[in-house]
Amino acid sequence: MPRSIRKGPFVDNHLAKKVEKAQSERSKKPIKTWSRRSTITPDFVGLTIAVHNGRQHVPVIISENMVGHKLGEFAATRIFKGHSADRKATTETTDAKK
């Protein structure tokens, strides 16, 4: 058995406390966290956790399929807006039409 299995999943203590409190109060309010490294456990299912992506908190509704994954997997940190158009190629095509 690998050592990582014996150690169990990692969850930050402050996040675990917030999850326990939200479950006991049956709160629907999102739980804010900066802990992207925490593993999603079955306790998290049904809760909304706002995960920080470096700029803002992204709300993530936890489902059963997410158990075992890290919170950071569901809050993208980089947004690719596409490559800019090649200006030289566009001017050549307009010159050729003249």
Automatic annotation (TrEMBL):
Q: Where is the composition biased (Basic and acidic residues)?
A: 14-28
User: Which lineage do the record's taxonomy fields give for this organism?
Assistant: Bacteria, Pseudomonadati, Pseudomonadota, Candidatus Muproteobacteria
Q: Which Gene3D superfamilies match?
A: 30s Ribosomal Protein S19, Chain A
To which species is this protein native? Candidatus Muproteobacteria bacterium RBG_16_60_9
Q: Which gene encodes it?
A: rpsS
Region span, Disordered: 1-32
What are this entry's molecular-function GO terms?
rRNA binding; structural constituent of ribosome
- General function of this protein: Protein S19 forms a complex with S13 that binds strongly to the 16S ribosomal RNA.
User: Which example biological process does GO assign this protein?
Assistant: translation
Check the record and name the PANTHER family matching this protein: RIBOSOMAL PROTEIN S19P FAMILY MEMBER, SMALL RIBOSOMAL SUBUNIT PROTEIN US19M
Question: What InterPro entries does its record include?
Answer: Ribosomal_uS19 (IPR002222), Ribosomal_uS19_bac-type (IPR005732), Ribosomal_uS19_CS (IPR020934), Ribosomal_uS19_SF (IPR023575)
Its Gene Ontology cellular component terms are:
cytoplasm; small ribosomal subunit
Keywords (alphabetical) are:
Ribonucleoprotein, Ribosomal protein, RNA-binding, rRNA-binding
The protein in question is named Small ribosomal subunit protein uS19
Entry similarity comment: Belongs to the universal ribosomal protein uS19 family.
